Amino acid sequence: SEKRFELLSGEYEREQEALEESIAKAQAELDAFEADTTRVDQFLALTKKYTDFSVLTTPMIYEFVDKILAHAPDRSTGDRTQEVDIYLKFIGKFDVPLPEPTAEELAEMEKQRKQRAYYRERSCSATTKMRNRDKENEKNLRSISEESGRTEGEELQRAPRLRFCMYQTVCP
Predict the structure, then answer these.
(1) Which of 2, 34, 79, 88 is the most interior residue, by most CB within 10 Å?
(2) Where do the DSSP E strands lie in 53-100?
(3) What is the pLDDT of residue 172?
(4) Side by side, which strands form the sheet with 84-88?
(5) What is the model's pTM?
(6) pLDDT tens readout for residues 98-117
(7) How would you classify residue 78: left for phi > 0, otherwise alpha for psi between -120 and 50, otherwise beta?
């Protein structure tokens, strides 16, 4: 029966270790719950202090707000948006629930998105045209300087007049 004793003893020790781990985990959860309860009680006491007020004052805000984190602005959608995190005393980060947009708001947002895309495309198109004109003007300036036998510096002095002429159908 020595084998049986060792077998039962081993099982008992494993069960004892598992129970000790379970107790430690439950104690940690209980401590966290008690800490949360204490913080909630402190926050509720603070809110009861300011249940009846007509003007929001700076000292009131200082009593409620622990810190405010403003993140870098984001312009990836075309609009400038900036995330702001507000941390209240005793409860931590406070997330403001966002209301669901109405059908009219969704339609307006889609209209603005299309307008931004249109103007962005238009701007890119105009910039590309100007770059192409500048490249063409440089080619024309080089060919004129080669034909006239003048140095590039002499042609650059005449360049503003020539560039103006390139946009006209007939040069003076």
Answers:
(1) 88
(2) 65-70, 84-88, 92-94
(3) 39
(4) 65-70, 84-88, 92-94
(5) 0.43
(6) 888 889 999 998 998 898 88
(7) left
